[in-house]
Write a structure and sequence with these properties.
The chain is mainly alpha-helical. It is 61% helix and 4% strand. Helix 14 crosses helix 16. It is globular and about 70 Å long.
């Protein structure tokens, strides 16, 4: 039986990590960029930007876990359209959309909320949904086990200790760092039979969103997907080092990159586009092809010549939209895509 000091150490568990000058510099840089994005009030005035970010987050987080649906197919599922694809993968999109839609409406420092959201994320796709795993879990490569998660009988207590630490540390550890520490610790404990990667990324977004609501709409998961190999290397480095430092740096860097993307989306066009072009851009969603007829109907315009002169051609000239068939500008199949 453990003596009193050992029990005290367990009850006051602190995940191992170090706060470096590089991390602090990134935190400062990120905070400055958040202020710049907020000044544009882009997510308040441009609902298409919020929706686009949310769809990108869902697609990327699922793609990391081998969901094969494309971005357009994910968008179609969310829009309620019929999509030909594996039933489980389509259900995963529906579940993820429901879970991400709940951001900002639950306490991310509550362990019970974590279980409830896991139930949402894995509904109708796994047997053990909303409960901690009952079996052992490991990571395999080439038939060789490269990481073994803690045994199932330890999961409940380890998760309780992790959440207790977060509640204690939230006033002392910057949310950017705290959320990244949680991300690694969660991946290490691997508390669920399935959906651990999706939940780790969703929960970091939830923690960041409580700090600043703008994170509800930033497609951070897209940057993780883009650098997926580096993501896994950072996690492996944490396993080897016995701390979360490598993943903290990785996540801070990718948050910084995501804010660069956001600034690029909202700042550059405003300096030179007309009101007509702005209306066009506000109507269009990213990476969705629109015909001239669809755009005119959406903007409630009747004159094709006027539409081309005041809306379409200036947007094309500034590179704000592109043709789907650039080699044949007059093609009857021509459509226009916002990039």
């Amino acid at each position: 039986m453990a003596d009193e000091s050992e029990v005290l150490n367990v009850e006051s568990y602190t995940p191992p990590f170090s706060i470096t000058h590089q991390m602090l510099n990134l935190c400062t840089q990120i905070a400055e960029k958040i202020g710049m994005v907020s000044n544009y009030r882009c997510f308040e005035t441009r609902p298409y930007l919020r929706r686009s970010g949310r769809i990108r987050s869902i697609h990327s987080s699922l793609a990391i876990e081998a969901n094969s649906l494309s971005l357009d197919e994910v968008r179609s599922v969310i829009d309620g359209k019929s999509v030909i694809g594996p039933r489980k993968e389509i259900q995963e999109v529906k579940n993820a959309y429901q879970a991400y839609d709940m951001l900002g409406r639950f306490d991310p420092y509550s362990l019970e909320n974590l279980k409830k959201l896991h139930g949402v994320v894995t509904r109708l796709t796994v047997e053990e949904s909303g409960v901690f795993r009952s079996g052992s879990e490991g990571v395999f490569s080439g038939g060789r086990c490269i990481f073994m998660a803690p045994p199932p009988h330890l999961v409940s207590e380890q998760m309780r200790l992790l959440f207790d630490w977060m509640v204690r540390a939230r006033r002392e550890v910057h949310p950017l760092i705290l959320s990244s520490v949680f991300h690694y610790e969660f991946v290490f404990i691997h508390p669920f039979a399935d959906g651990n990667g999706r939940m780790a990324r969703l929960w970091q977004t939830a923690l960041l969103s409580q700090w600043n609501p703008i994170f509800q709409y930033l497609p951070l998961e897209s940057r993780i997907h883009e650098f997926q190999d580096e993501y896994y290397r950072a996690i492996a480095a944490c396993h080897a080092a016995g701390n979360s430092d490598a993943l903290i740096l990785f996540m801070l860097d990718k948050i910084d990159m995501t804010l660069d993307w956001a600034l690029g989306q909202v700042s550059a066009p405003d300096a030179y586009v007309s009101t007509e072009v702005r209306r066009l851009l506000d109507f269009m969603e990213y990476d969705v092809p629109y015909t001239t007829a669809q755009l005119m109907a959406g903007l409630k315009l009747k004159s094709r010549d006027s539409f081309r002169k005041t809306h379409l051609l200036p947007a094309l000239r500034h590179g704000l939209i592109v043709m789907s068939v650039p080699d044949k500008p007059t093609s009857r199949n021509q459509a226009y895509i916002k990039k």
